[in-house]
């Protein structure tokens, strides 16, 4: 069961890592889509530079680390999945609260919130299974 949890985590964390880094680059550069600056009205930001860097570094970085840990079967992969999921959920919830978007939540926000929750659950279940195996062995 743990190997299945790890494989699903690998796919989800890889997807989030790639899309968060690319999304951060898009926010910073405005390519291929420039987001409306008006959406930042309720935030401390007057451009997408800092949010883009934070998206790439925090959300993308934590997901990439979870991906690497899972693909290498590092024993810390369950914790890294939990951290990546919590970071992603926190990012999405902050986005939904702070951005002045036409519709809230957006489809993308719902999808990423679900993926973040899945990463937390996968990591939690894998950590519990590892604890059970250690207790049985010890």
What tags apply to this protein structure?
single chain; 138 residues; mainly alpha; Butyryl-CoA Dehydrogenase, subunit A, domain 3; 4 helices
Overview of this protein structure:
By secondary structure, the protein is mainly alpha-helical. The protein is 75% helix and 0% strand. The protein is built from 4 helices and no strands. Helix 3 runs antiparallel to helix 4. The radius of gyration is 17 Å and the shape is elongated.
List the helices and strands and how they pair.
Blueprint: H1 2-29, H2 49-71, H3 77-98, H4 107-137
Helix pairs in contact: 1-2, 1-4, 2-3, 3-4
How many domains in all? Answer: 1
Helices and strands, in order, run as HHHH
Summarize the main sheet: none
DSSP strand content: under 5%
CATH topological fold name: Butyryl-CoA Dehydrogenase, subunit A, domain 3
Q: What is the number of strand segments?
A: 0
Please tally the helical runs, counting DSSP H or I stretches of 4 or more residues: 4
User: What would you report as the Rg, rounded to the nearest angstrom?
Assistant: 17 Å
CATH architecture: Up-down Bundle
> Residue ranges: pLDDT <50 for 5 or more in a row?
none
Q: What's the shape? A: elongated
State the share of residues found in helices, binned by percent: over 70%
- Helix/sheet category: mainly alpha
| Mean pLDDT across all amino acids | 95
User: Span between N and C termini?
Assistant: 20 Å
For the record, the CATH class is Mainly Alpha
């Amino acid at each position: 069961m743990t190997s299945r949890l790890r494989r699903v985590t690998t796919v989800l964390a890889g997807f989030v890592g790639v899309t968060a880094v690319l999304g951060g680059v898009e926010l910073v550069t405005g390519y291929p889509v420039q987001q409306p600056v008006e959406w930042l009205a309720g935030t401390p930001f007057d451009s997408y530079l800092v949010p883009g860097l934070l998206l790439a570094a925090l959300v993308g970085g934590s997901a990439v680390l979870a991906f690497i840990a899972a693909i290498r079967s590092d024993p810390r992969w369950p914790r890294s999945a939990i951290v990546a999921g919590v970071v992603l959920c926190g990012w999405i919830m902050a986005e939904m609260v702070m951005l002045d978007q036409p519709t809230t939540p957006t489809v993308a926000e719902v999808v990423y919130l679900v993926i973040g929750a899945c990463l937390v659950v996968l990591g939690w279940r894998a950590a519990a299974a590892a604890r059970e195996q250690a207790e049985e062995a010890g």
